[in-house]
# Entry
Amino acid sequence: MKNFNEEKRDSSLLGRLGGDAGIYIHIPFCKQACYYCDFHFSTSLKKKDTLIQCLVKEIELRKDKLKDKTVETIYFGGGTPSLLTQQELDVLINAIYKNFKISETPEITLEANPDDLSKNQIVQLSKSSINRLSIGIQSFFEDDLKSMNRAHSAEEAKQSLSLATTYFDNITIDLIYGVPNMSLKKWHENVETALRYHVNHISSYALTVEPKTALEKFIEKGKYPPVDENLALQHFNHLVTTLETEGFVHYEISNFGKPNYFSRHNTSYWHGKPYLGIGPSAHSYLGDQRSWNVSNNTKYVQAIQKEELPISIETLSKKDRFNEYIMTGLRTIWGVSLKKVKEDFGEDCLQYLKTAAERFIEQELLTMSNNKTQVLVATQKGKFLVDGIASELFMI
# Structure
């Protein structure tokens, strides 16, 4: 009989975690700009009503893209989707149901900021079809939040979780580690505070300096300390050890979930299932094609109002798809299946991967399972370095 650690790579479990397809809705509005963020958004809400109308129109224009698929997950990301009213969210959800075939038990996630989650808002959401909240906590410390230019306070972070956990079972929170000058003790307090609210999923990301962000400019001008990778590694290792002790499964490099609480939407991404992205800057993936909408609200609205799709399309080569599978596979507990590599990409790619992976196996950064279905996975030592390792395995 399999225990969970053995079953987690079983193909039957993969089927339960993600369905035929997913839909992502990008809500490109925020109250203010976080210093580290490079996502597409506007701090002006003047065009919100018009843009929502255009989101509905794009849904209608693209209804045939998933015509043979059942949509298992709907994800409202951004930006800050919690800036929308319940009525506005219902308009978008109803449009999706009208134009696509939806599972009887879809996962419908709403990203939310703590300052938007009043008791009234949470109660309304709990009565709607939204059944999963992703709350952008980032830190429970006031100085961290101010240094990131977050719109909420530490107290609002705690209040939102107290309320949300009363009405929702399926909640994930975001935490940022590797913040300069954050001691290991302070990071430990962040993690312990999160655990006190008994959430079943945590997504945690290292603070990253993205090009053209305010954070990059502050560091260049000496107004903010540079990111310390050694500190980030200490935080990461502490996070992994603590959460695994508490019964979380580290199923993707940045994601930890209790059994039955993995993100079905993101898991579908990592397993290469098709998804449709709606809204400015939203990306779509349809097997051998990747596409993305224009990252400009005005241009997006102008095109959609003419019933045109402001979209760029890229046809993926075998090499592109191989590299994508290596990147996503190594980030997860399911790893990279040698059988799948051979079946999907051919013997040449399989032999290339085996040869390229040898030095990382010798360095104990990767390991190969010894069962019939050989799977290449990152070791605990290799997890923090996995993106760099994957890029070394790419075919160029």
Notes: Residues 166 and 254 are 26 Å apart (CA to CA). Residues 1-18 have pLDDT under 50 and may be disordered. Residues 229-245 form the longest helix (17 residues). The radius of gyration is 21 Å.
